[in-house]
Amino acid sequence: MINDKEWEEAQERGRIHSLTVPCAVAARYDAATGMITVDLNLGFSVSFHKSRSQTLCKATDEQLSEIEVDSPGWSIMFPKLEDGFSVEGMLAGRFGTRRWEREWADAHGIEIAENKLPEHTVAA
Question: How far apart are the C-alpha atoms of 100 and 45, rounded to whole Å?
């Protein structure tokens, strides 16, 4: 069991973390545009088209209509799809597997250095 001092120190570490590490506070999907927008605790939002994500590209509007942000704000989940993505992966530009990222870039005429491709599936 922790004492009061340890509890207060842990609370302070959590407070500092919440002010300095990007975490989702809200997320939404706009079916008219196909855009997913994630609002972050640091005062800005990130948006991307569902076609950019290996996990979401084939999802229906109905599957994307319900979005949940996990309690620490590290993940965005789509319960009807039973899948989601991490905020960390989204901010790093990891939207699928290495192979999928390469194919997506080639299809869109974008050059991505091999060392910038994800090593594993971490998704946005």
Answer: 25
Contact 76, 53 (CB under 8 A): no
CA atoms in the 13 A half-sphere facing the CB of 60 = 3
Residue 75, both tokens: 């993940």
Instruction: Please tell me the distance from the alpha carbon of residue 24 to that of residue 26, in angstroms, as a whole number.
Output: 6
Residue 90: pLDDT over 70: yes
* Verdict on whether the full-model pTM lies above 0.90: no
Please tell us whether the domain made up of 20-116 is placed in CATH 3.30.1330.40: no
Instruction: Give tens-digit pLDDT for 25-45.
Output: 999 999 999 999 999 999 999
Up-side HSE of residue 75: CA atoms within 13 Å toward CB?
11
User: Mean pLDDT, the chain, as a whole number?
Assistant: 88
Residue pair 58/44 in contact by the 8 Å Cβ criterion: no
DSSP-derived secondary structure for 62-120: HHHS--EE-TTS-EEEETTTTEEEEHHHHHHT--S-HHHHHHHHHHTT----GGGS-SS
